[in-house]
Amino acid sequence: MALRFLSLFLFGLLSFDAHGLETLVRQPRQMAMGGIGVGLADDEYALFNNPAGLAGQKSRKFRPVNVALEGSLDIYGSLSTVTDAISNFGLGTLNELMGKDIYLRASTAPLITLPSFAVAFIGDAQGSLLIRNQANPTYRIGNMLTYGFQAGMGWTFKSGRRPVDEWRFGLAGKMLWRKGGIYDLGTPEFLRLANDAEGYITELVGDYGMGFGADAGVQYVRHLDSKGSDLFIGASLTDIGGTRFDVSTARPVQMNPSIGVGWVKNTDFLRFKAGLDLRNLDQETRFSNKIHFGTETSLPLFDLYAGMNQLNLTYGAAFDIWVLRVTALSYAEELGVAFHQNTSRRYVLHVDFNLPI
To answer: For residue 72, what are the contacts with CB-CB under 8 A and spacing of at least 6?
Structure first.
């Protein structure tokens, strides 16, 4: 039973943000730069944040391998404790895992990019467990798996006597399959979970449901000089109206209205980018949870990242050689109600293999 439960736990998916502010696809640069990507949507991953940015894409690429592995600090710091507690799942697990943020995630998003167009396969799996309040325990556990396809296209319009002002518009559509969600359990439900983990989780998760979603975005680009320095202002509305599934047990993807600004400066030696986004503007959560800021410094073979996600530090580095790119980064999410009440520090390793076409 313990092995079956461990398998379900590791390969299920739970987006464990207390405020439902998760993004289905997050590229490593976005996470390392504090979660930005709306104003400064200037690469193929604009497909997931602001499809208007696709209008600036001129390359033809195929990314057959695009895999990210992610885990929380408590996973790395107490792996043996977590493994033992899950292997002997029961009431003893309560004390061993009390207050720990157990979070695992694996995702993939292979892309094909053409001028002003991108299409991607999406696969995302997460597992999380959080037990709080030793006097009156509450348990939050989930199992959710998502996969599907997304495609988008951007259009550009230039204005002014000189082609320094550029307006971009974009649309994207997605078809997703998902099962599972987040579950808040009391002690009786936890006891049932301890006695019949596989059966109870299967009952909670249910079957796959199909859903369709749409994104839209706009972006203004001011070209500042001949070296490619630009000013970006953008707005996007992802999962318009919310992406819902045709089974009640599958968790919907919430609509996300966002705005952002970005700046790119090119010199003879490096390329520097900075951006500020305000995301999830319609969500009832602290304003600090909506703030995202980040920078990128691009050098030959290396990119360095730094930022603030929900006023928590993010950082990372990427090594790029020909068709292989490896990125390592760390970011943090707020899980509590008050600022810094329950901050989850997470670490990500991303491998990207791309070919020109």
So the answer is: 101, 102, 103, 104, 344, 345, 346, 347
Distant-in-sequence, close-in-space partners of 279: CB < 8 Å, separation ≥ 6? 21, 35, 38, 256, 258, 260, 290, 292
- Measure the CA–CA gap between 310 and 17, rounded to whole angstroms: 12
Tokens 């006891």 label which residue? 191
2-to-43, 83, 143, 145, 265 alpha-carbon distances in Å: 44, 10, 16, 21, 54
Bridge partner residues of 154 (DSSP): 170
The HSE-up count of residue 245 (CA atoms within 13 Å, CB side) is 24
- Cβ neighbors of 16 (< 8 A, separation 6 or more) are 101, 103, 126, 128, 130, 140, 142, 182, 335, 344
The answer to whether domain 2-356 has CATH 2.40.160 is yes
Query: What contacts 265, CB < 8 A, 6 or more positions away?
Result: 229, 271, 272, 273
Q: Which residues are bridge partners to 296 per DSSP?
A: 273, 305
| CA distances, 319 to each of 6, 16, 61, 228, 294 (Å) | 34, 30, 18, 23, 19
Convert the pLDDT of each residue in 79-88 to its tens digit: 666 666 666 6
The alpha carbon torsion through 116, 227, 292, 345 (nearest 10 deg) reads 100
Q: pLDDT digit string (tens) for 278-292?
A: 998 988 888 888 999
- Sign for the pseudo-dihedral over CA of 185, 191, 194, 196: negative
Average confidence score pLDDT of the chain: 84
Contact yes or no for 16/182 (Cβ under 8 A): yes
Q: Rounded distance, CA 278 to CA 38, Å?
A: 9
Q: 27-41, 144-158, 260-274, 278-292: which has the minimum mean pLDDT?
A: 278-292
- Give the model confidence (pLDDT) of 49-71 as tens digits: 999 999 999 989 999 999 999 98
| 38 close to 235: Cβ distance less than 8 angstroms | yes
The continuous run of DSSP H or E covering 147 comes out as: strand 138-159
**Measured CA distances, 69 to 28, 62, 64, 328, 329 (Å):** 10, 21, 16, 10, 11
